Amino acid sequence: MKKVIFSFLLLAAFSFNALAGEGDKIPAATLKKLDGSKINSNTFSNNGKPIIISFWATWCKPCKKELDAIAENYGDWVKETGVKLIAISIDDVRSSSKVVTDVKIKGWEYEVYLDENSDFKRAMNVNNVPHTFLVDGNGNIVWSHNSYAEGDEDKLYQNVQAIVKGEPLKH
């Protein structure tokens, strides 16, 4: 019985470590670009500069509020820190056609990908949206935040600035 319990605990620990969290690299999953072509998430890079990965959905009002709030200052953020935002839609095949419309109407300047099968969502251990991750210039996930309240984008940007300056992050 002890062997069974030990084996179960070992398997659970291994399974938990397979999911992305702070300190991990971006896991591999196939995503769809808005033009229909495919990309693997493990190819995300930004020439040694930070990356924000934001999971969202067309039906999620807080998600859109967060991405809109970031859009207001995104150009300045890029100029000051070189950060790149990658927006991952978790809309399934039935609703993913709305993503292109939303992106065009909103005028978002982000890279936007579709995770129609939720493979990347599962790999990143995302349960609810919006869920935002911050990745350092070495590709390590260093911060994450679930949900959105007005002003969260300011905390996010403070952490982007901290990464660029080599300072500790504020959790």
Which descriptors apply to this entry?
single chain, 171 residues, alpha/beta, Glutaredoxin, seven-stranded mixed β-sheet, 5 helices, globular
Strand-helix topology:
Blueprint lengths: L1 H16 L12 E4 L4 E3 L10 E6 L4 H21 L2 E6 L7 H10 L4 E4 L4 H5 L7 E5 L5 E6 L5 H14 L6
Parallel strand pairs: 3-4, 4-5
Antiparallel strand pairs: 1-2, 1-5, 3-6, 6-7
Written overview of the protein:
The protein has helices spanning 2-17, 61-81, 97-106, 119-123, 152-165, and strands at 30-33, 38-40, 51-56, 84-89, 111-114, 131-135, 141-146. The chain has 171 residues and is of the alpha/beta class. It has one domain: Glutaredoxin. A seven-stranded mixed beta sheet has the order 2-1-5-4-3-6-7. Helix 2 (61-81) runs parallel beside helix 5.
Q: Any idea what the CATH superfamily is called?
A: Glutaredoxin
Taken in chain order, the helices and strands follow as HEEEHEHEHEEH
Q: Reading side by side through the largest sheet, how are the strands ordered?
A: 2-1-5-4-3-6-7
Low-confidence stretches: 1-19
Please state the CA-atom Rg, rounded to the nearest Å: 17 Å
CATH uppermost class? Alpha Beta
CATH T-level topology? Glutaredoxin
Sheet-strand content, in percent, reads: 15-25%
